[in-house]
Every structure is written in C-alpha cells, then in structure tokens.
Amino acid sequence: MKKRGVIIVTVALILLTARCQKWDLAKISEPGVSRELADLRKTTITNLNYDLRFDIPENADEDISSEILISFDFKKVGNYPVVLDFKEKAEFLHSVELNNEYCDYLFENEHIIIPPSLLQEGRNEITITFSSGKQSLNRRDNFMYTLLVPDRARTLFPCFDQPDLKASYILTLTVPNSWIAVANSPLNKSVTNADNQTVTHIFEPTEPLSTYLFSFVAGEFVKAEKSDDSGCTIGLYHRETDPCKLAQIDEILDGVFYSLEWLEEYTAIPYPFAKYDCIVLPGFQYGGMEHTGATLYNDRRIFLEKGAGISERMNRFSLIAHETAHMWFGDYVTMKWFDDVWTKEVFANYFAALITAEKYPDVDNSFAFLDYASAAYSVDRTEGANAIKQPLANLKDAGLIYGNIIYNKAPIVMEMLARKMDPESFKNGIREYLTEYAYGNADWEGLVAILDKYTDEDLAAWSHDWVHKPGMPHYKVNSLTQIDLNGLNYGFYELTDEVSATLMKNVVEKPLSPSEKASALIILYENYLNERISGSDYTSFILDCLESLSKEESSQNILVFQRAISQLRSILWKEKYLQETGWEGRLTGLISHSQAESCRRSAFSALLNAPHSESTTEMFLAAFMKPESFTCFHLTNADLTQLCQQLAIRKEEIAPHIIAKQRERLSHPDLIEQFEYIAPALASSPEARRECFQSLLKAENREIEPWALTLLRLLNHPLRQKEALTYIRPALEIFEEIQITGDIFFPTNWCSALLGGHHSEEAQNKVELFLEQYSETLNPLLVQKILQAAYYI
Fold first, then answer.
1. How many distinct helices (H) and strands (E) make up the chain?
2. Mean pLDDT along residues 192-210
3. 659-679 pLDDT, tens per residue?
4. Nearest CA-CA partner of 400 in 414, 386, 413
5. I need a surface site. Which of 28, 58, 102, 274 has the fewest CB within 10 A?
6. 752 SS3 class
7. CA 510: distance to chain centroid?
8. E-strand spans in 146-243?
C-alpha cells in the first residue's frame, strides 16, 4: 500500500507539471491508446525489442504464467512518463522491474505508468511478470491461436500497442508435448522439460513487426509442406481428415508460391521475412490474417467442398493472393495509424485482383472489380455510408474502421488512380514507396507524394473526393450510349424506364460479353433497389437471365449466373407478390437442367433458403433423408447440414429427428462441436429458442464468432420474424459490448445476422426507436454499422 501511495503522488505531480507541455497527459492516460499517447511514444521510444515467454497449460481454465523483457532507447522529453498498455485486471500484473530493480508504477486505465524520474536517457529494460489475458488467445480444447489485430496485443501482454512502434520479438513458448507450435519466425530449438509433459520452443528473433502482427499458434495439428524449385519450403498446418480436402493441399500451396513469385517480380523486392507458413483453423473469425511466418486461414475458405466450382476456387486463390500481398503491403510497410488501415487493404485486394487475373486468364479481370463494386455499394447506398479514410482518435475503436468500403471501394479507387498513370510509372512508384518505407510506416499522403512524381495529374486533389467523402456519384442516364459496361465505373446510374427495359432485354437476348452482363446486372439492381424497376419485373428478368446463362458451362458464364442468383436471393423474401413470375418452378428447373454443377448447386441453395412451398420442402426432406436418391449432384456433409437447418425450421414437428440424423452423420470432432453449438437455434420450442438467444447475450458464449453468428441468423430466420422481433432491442443494447469483446468484423456481422431476416415495418420501428434513444450517446461508428444493416429491413 505504501508503494502504491508513493506512485500516485508521483503521477499526480507529473499531471500537474505536464499541463503546459505539448501532450495532454489526461489524454495520454485515458483507456485505450489515444493518438496523443501514440505520438508521444513515437517521439520518445526507439530501437524496441520484446523478449516474451508464455507457459501454455493444457487445461484452458488455468492461468498462463508469462514474462516479458521490453528493451528500448528512451529520449526524455519534458516530464512525461513511459506508458505501457495492458488491458487486464490488476491482479494479472505481478511485478515490474526497471533496469534490474523493482520499481514503482501506477496501473490504471489499462496502462502501466512509470515515472520519468526512474528512467535513464538511452537504453532501458523493463521486465514484467504477469498472467496473460485470454481474450485474444482463442483457446479450444486442443489448440489455440493469437489474433491481435488491431489493438488486442495489449490484452495478451504489456506492450506499446501501436502500429508505428515496430519491434523485434523473441518468443519462448512452453506447451504440452503433444502440441505443435508455430510462430512468426523460424524455430531455434525445442527442449523437453523435466516433467516430460511439456516442451519449450524458442524461436528466432523476428524482423521489425507491429504489435498486431505478432502471433503464435499451438495445438494438435498435422503439418504438410511443399518446396519450390529454389528450395523454398512452405508449411501448411491443419486439422482436416477428409481425403477430398487433403487432396487440395498441393493446389493451396501452389497458390502461395504463385503469389509470392508474382509479387517479388512486381515489387523487385524478395520476400522480406524469414519464413512463410500457413495454419488452417476451424471457426476462424476472418477469411485470413497476414501474420508474417504464420498466416492464418479459415478452414471453410481454404478446404473446399466436393463439387466446388470456378467461383469458389477463384475466391480461394484470391484470398491467398490477398494475404500474400500483405507481406509487402501491411507487414513490410505498415500504416502509421489505423485511420490509414485501408492503405494496406487497398493494396492487398488490388494486387489480389491482378494476380488472380493472371492465374485465371480465361476470366476477364473486370470481374474482380465488379465484385468489389457490388460489395462496396452494399454500404455506400445506405444512410450509414462512410468515407474510405475515417478519423480515429483512439485505437480502441480501430476495429470499427473496417468494412466493405476499405476492402472493396478502395481497390476500385486504386484502379482509377493506376489508370491515370501508365503501368510502368505506377509500378515504379510502388517500388519507390516500398523502398522508402521498408520495415517502417507510411500514410496515404506519403504514397500520393511519391506517385505524384510519376504523373502530371494532381493526385492529391483527385483523391480527396474519393478517399475522404462517403457515398457514390449519381448519374442520370437517358440513353444506352451513356453507359460503359467495362466494369470499371462506380456510382448509381439512374435509368429511364425505356433504357432499363432495353438493357434488361439486351442482357438476356443480345450477345453481350459475360463481363458486360455482370456490369449491367449491378446497374439494374441499383435501379431496382431505388424503385426504378418493380420487384416482379426484376424477378422475371433475373429468372430469364438465369435460364439463358444456365445453357453454357464457361467459367465467365458461371460467374454471371452466381451474381444473378445472389440478387434473386436478396429479393425473394422482400417481395410479397411474385407468384406470377413462377420463380419456384423455374428455380427447380435450374437445379435439374443447368449445364454446370456449380450453377445447379447455386440454384439449389437459393431455393432452399427461399420462401418456398410445402411441396418443395418435401422434396428437400426426401433428399436429406436419402442423399443417394438425389441425382442432380453429390450432397456433401456441408450441404446436408444446410438442409438440416432449413428443414428443422420448416418442419418443427420432426425437427428433433432431423437434427439427430445429421448429428449421426458427423465424425470429425470439430464439426460435431460446431453442430452441437448451433443445434439449440433449431429447437421446436419457442421457449428453448428464447433461452438460446439469452445465452448469446453473454460474452463467453460468443467466443467462436462464426458459430455465434450462425446461431443468431437462424434465430432471426425470416420464417421466425414475428418471434424474433423481441430479440432486436436486447441484441442492440449490448452492441458496445459486442465491439469490446468481439473481433473487428463482429459488430458489422452481428447487425447483419440480427436484422438480415427481418422485412417488416415493426422491425424497422424497433431499430429507429433504439437509435432515437441512443444515437447521441452511442459511438458514431457503431451507429453507422446499425444504419448499414437496417437499410435492408
């Protein structure tokens, strides 16, 4: 108690003496990581190194004994302390030593504050013993992985948690001896401990990394690996047992090698890190995460189901190219602050499109940018539209910056910028950018300043409207000649009735190229959403389009087919009087008669998830009970699980039997665990479903986010809209907690899962009432997420 009293007085004196200095110490010591704190630390701290030790017990409930040695050069500026970040309870912090002596410190507002009087100019070492926080450890029974983006390193260990304080890391990891351990850097050595139950792995120092990129994975995994002609070896760690999926490993690793070679040639910079391994994880929150040396992937995005078509294979390759591009754009050169996080995502998606285009030369490159446009429009058309670059005062809100705009609108803007320059000049500018900021940090303005040297265009002025303003341009179109269907435009093209009718007819009947058809579909869909085309007319057009496309099996035709059927799926629950279009019978025909299996599968999924008739439900039930009798394509376990979920909702009287039958079919423990987690949402009893929903309001029941979202989505199924109205308010009331406890995409996905099945005035009123009461106090970035999802009610 005496020690704490001394340090409180010391810090109080610091607060008094610092008031007239450059940085506001109250801001510096507020929860999270304020911009002021980050700026101060960037000024005073250099040559940073972390030496970390974690002892991971086999029992997930036990504490994780940990120690860190932080060494850095300190430049005294004014009377400012050193402020470390550690977002855990005080009892998790055991001791703090400064330069080999126990020191006084204050622990408050998620910070360890060390007075400047105790620090020496030049080299300092801080040694801290602590128990690691578990929020970002993603513990399961027999494996775990860290995921620290954007500001979660401070939940795991004390650190300077900001992207522009890069450091070298040395990791020592003790794990059960049956576990494999993987980290950012190569393994130096492993030692079996005296207990014969654990192994200690010591890894080599890393290259300079931001805290959000530090990572390790441990658990029961199988390792596969492949080498290229140069002798470079890439490992792939997984938990898969399905022979069909294991056979894909060569193709997966070939995708990594292809992307690496492409990027090395384009950037003229060899892969800038010591190793490249991939870990495929069940229930992983994202598609992938670009940790150097230990890139994480979602198992369902990497291991494809039997019968996966061109779209799924291209999406997988694009994901691999995206994460590989991050090695240069994000890891090697990193944004200074997370308001510029889009500068890493724009390059990852932009170059993923270029790499994928070369890998799949039979598919027009514009398809990637059409996909980006479609996703970006889903936000830009709403009241919650946001600019590409958004202000960010504190890193605790950095996760809310992420979304479709930075991932999908940004690469379209980058393509516009690239077209303002000749390709060689653009490439040279990118190479200069990477060389200038190697292993360091940059911002958008720094990039534009470099590219400006390679063109006469005023890029800074041009980019202002596209980067700093939300929404999309609005064009009025009176003639087809005013529309360019090259797929490289962005905006709402408002068509006259005559132009829209002609364009719909041309898509179905005229010899437009597949990419032109895809571009036209996007333009027409915006006109439907803006009530320029009626629901019945647009549904009839989409069905005509699907039937026309179903007759050919080319890759590009399949991609257009899937875009059209995605639009149809979004329409069928919203439009109430579509019987005259004959959509149900026509979709059934597409399941039977489409030339490409992937088109038959897409039609099957669309019909399964649509408001279909009892006779169609019986058809699906027969396929579920006897999959071998279904002849349109092979039904995988994933297909049967989807059937189980939809049938249990529609056939409540036999739901327990349906659920039990599908449970019996599963053998992999990860799939069984997932199925048993989700099954309560399929309960026949409304009381049981309410209890299931109540469980989701507790953070400990949302730890595996993709599963939690499936649960919430099923509870808010369109057939349960009336019952689910009672879920809207309580699910929105914990929205701030969802942000605090969840990972970066969870708030957006939570809103979509909650509201996506609702299409009623009552649901809209509930959301509007909530916003009326809370919009003044709720973080504006959270309000944006609600408005984006509520648009589709």
1. 32, 23
2. 97
3. 999 999 999 999 999 999 999
4. 386
5. 102
6. helix
7. 39
8. 167-176, 180-183, 187-192, 198-203, 216-219, 222-227, 233-238
**Environment class of residue 219 by beta-carbon count within 10 Å: exposed (0-12), middle (13-18) or buried (19+)?**
buried
What is the C-alpha separation between 12 and 377, in angstroms, rounded?
Answer: 51
Distance CA 402, CA 326 (A): 16
Question: What six digits make up the tokens of 392?
Answer: 């960010």
Q: How far apart are CA 606 and CA 622, in angstroms?
A: 18
- Which residues partner with 93 through β-bridges? 130
Alpha helices in 626-704 (DSSP H): 637-650, 655-665, 669-678, 686-696
Q: Where does residue 138 fall: left (phi above 0), alpha (psi -120 to 50 degrees), or beta otherwise?
A: left
Average the pLDDT over 226-246 and give the result: 95
CB contact at 8 A, 180 and 221: yes
- Which string of b and e fits 330-362 if b means at least 16 CB within 10 Å? bbbbbbbbbbbbbbbbbbbbbbbbbbbbebbee
pLDDT at residue 75 tops 90: yes
Is residue 332 a contact partner of residue 158, using CB atoms and an 8 Å limit?
no
What is the mean pLDDT of the segment spanning 735-742?
A: 97
Mean pLDDT of 729-745: 97
- The alpha carbon of residue 464 and the mean position of all alpha carbons in its chain are separated, in whole angstroms, by 26
The Cα–Cα gap between 177 and 20 comes to 56
Nearest-Å Rg of the Cα atoms of the chain is: 27
pLDDT tens readout for residues 757-780: 999 999 999 999 999 999 899 999
d(CA 644, CA 642): 5
Measured between alpha carbons, how far is 389 from 466 in angstroms, rounded to an integer? Answer: 9
**Rounded to an integer, what is the distance from CA 59 to the centroid of its chain?**
29
How many C-beta neighbours within 10 Å does residue 529 have?
Answer: 18
Question: Which residue has better confidence, 14 or 507?
Answer: 507
Q: pTM for the full model? A: 0.96
The amino acid sitting at 527 is N
Q: How many residues does the chain have?
A: 793
What residues contact 618, with CB distance under 8 A and at least 6 apart?
none
Residue pair 25/149 in contact (Cβ under 8 Å)? The answer is: no
Task: Tell me how far apart the alpha carbons of residues 602 and 623 are, in angstroms, rounded to a whole number.
Answer: 16
Please name which of 405, 392, 413, 402 lies closest in space to residue 464, comparing C-alpha atoms: 413
Which residue from 499, 111, 138 is spatially nearest to 285, judged by alpha carbons?
A: 138
Residues 6+ apart with CB under 8 A from 626: none
**Tell me, what DSSP letter sits at residue 184?**
S
**∠ CA 445-449-455 to the nearest 5 degrees?**
135
